Amino acid sequence: MAGLREYRRRSERMKNAVIAGACRKSGKTLLACSLVRELAGRGCRTAAFKLSRGRQPCEVQILEGPGRPGSDTERLAAAGACRTALVRYSEPGDLVPVLASLPGGEDVTVWESNSAADILQADLLVYIAVPGCAEPKAMHLADSADLLLTGPVDAASAEAVASAAAGRLLEGLESERESG
Questions:
Q1: Element holding 125 (H helix, E strand)
Q2: For a surface tag, which of 76, 95, 123, 160 has the fewest beta carbons within 10 Å of its beta carbon?
Q3: pTM of the predicted structure, to 2 decimals
Q4: How far, in Å, CA of 85 to CA of 32, rounded?
Q5: Do residues 145 and 165 make contact, with C-beta atoms less than 8 angstroms apart?
Q6: Domains annotated on the chain, with CATH
Q7: C-alpha to C-alpha distance for 52 and 114, rounded to whole angstroms
């Protein structure tokens, strides 16, 4: 995994927000949708990508678009994402060239993934810890998270966190625009 942090934003003005969590059903998608909705409501062009690590070795697959009805990518598109994709992979190292090619002209990209936090230069990292989670994942992210939540996250908490997170992301975006 050495060198994964070498990936940088294509545009210094675009922001990366990563939503990560200890386990399934922690509220990652709910929070990602709330953040997309909040950012879109504030006039931001927002892309949303879900990274899904498979158990079996496979080539990286990028499934662009909202996906099937009820899927996470469909929920992200319905929340206001101008672009969505599901990215399936087996090894995080395989993601580096793929992730560099995904973002386009968006203001903010929301990544729902634990692996993205290890690869991307995140402007905002949210980690959802879930007490009692049988096999917690990516616990190391809790130490570097900008926002550490106790999950599972409910709708009211997701909206409140999304509002604060959007403000933080947009504040950084505006200050970069003013200085650039």
A1: strand 124-129
A2: 160
A3: 0.87
A4: 13
A5: no
A6: 18-179 (3.40.50)
A7: 9
